Amino acid sequence: MTTTATTTDPVAEAADRLHATGLRNQWYPVLPSHFVANGEMKRVVRLGEPWLLFRRPTGELHMIADRCPHRSAPLSLGQHLGDRVACLYHGVQVDGDGTVVKVPGLPGCNLEGKRLVTSLPVREEHGAVFAWFGDEAHPEPAPLVLPERLTDPDTAGFLNYAEWGAPWRFYIDNVLDPMHGAFLHGTSHSMAGGAKSARFRIRETGHGFFFEKTDQVGVNFDWVEFGRTGVDWVDLEIPYQPYAGPGGAFGIVGMVTPITATESAIFHWRTRAVQGWERDSWRFLYRMTLEARHHEVLEQDRTMLEEMPEDADTGENLYQHDLGVVRIRRMYRADAARQAAELAAHRGEAG
């Protein structure tokens, strides 16, 4: 009797994990800033790993792995000591850089002074905490450049945060599919107009691409831009009806951060180019009326994506409207394979 040994490709397996739980070596939004007040700490799972955010009483924010270097107990169960966290299990104290600063049970222990806990570079921008998720070969963060819609002082906006029970890539597929707006959101206050058939094209930019209708502009969800500027984002506009008050079109900047392979953190900055009294008028109208209507649209997306099977992006029958989806999927698959190969090579050189 002969047996056949089965072998696995560790690089391919690593690429699959990256594709499932999120690419590394880029910035991701983690939480709205107000979720972690001064003197507080909060546990989160991002890119399949547990993390602890804690803010000093002075406001400085830190993000470290939620794992004590002594016995791997969750630091999030411990005590916030201002500039450090004390593990509940044996009192080991870790600061915001991941350095063990005190071992109360054995003062002078050789753990003290060593950086034994992973810490991530963090920045707070436009109401959100951003963290650099680098790998061993890329610990230093790249520049974080946000889309112009967020940095324009003449544009007002609100950050909406949600957690969905669907893979992160489903969100990207959904946004790179403008045609779904005419059907799934066809009865909404902002996407009821326009044709239910269209042709699309991809238009390249210096940092990504546009996916846009060729035969309809300024009527519905007619285009989306994908950008990579240290962080991956999508940007789109939906024309407002006259009852939405003065100002330009309704703009959305969207980002997604994997929580696990099947859960996602969704960030939407809802914006409008308005100044002066129009800015105040729109912000009031948004809070009083429009926010609830936009939430209904978002819930339609969430419900649809959460009801899809986990392998929904395999075995499909795609057509011309799906050019943007195909483009983004190929890009992310190639990136996952490249990152896995680069990290394997780095570890081989280091070892």
TrEMBL record:
> What molecular function does GO assign, one term?
oxidoreductase activity, acting on paired donors, with incorporation or reduction of molecular oxygen
Task: Provide the Rieske domain boundaries.
Answer: 27-131
Report keywords, A-Z: 2Fe-2S, Dioxygenase, Iron, Iron-sulfur, Metal-binding, Oxidoreductase
Q: Which domain of life is it from?
A: Bacteria
* Keyword Iron-sulfur carried by entry: yes
Enumerate the InterPro entries for this protein: Cholesterol_7-desaturase, Rieske_2Fe-2S, Rieske_2Fe-2S_sf, VanA_C_cat
What PROSITE patterns has UniProt attached to this entry?
Answer: RIESKE
Designated name of the protein:
Aromatic ring-hydroxylating dioxygenase subunit alpha
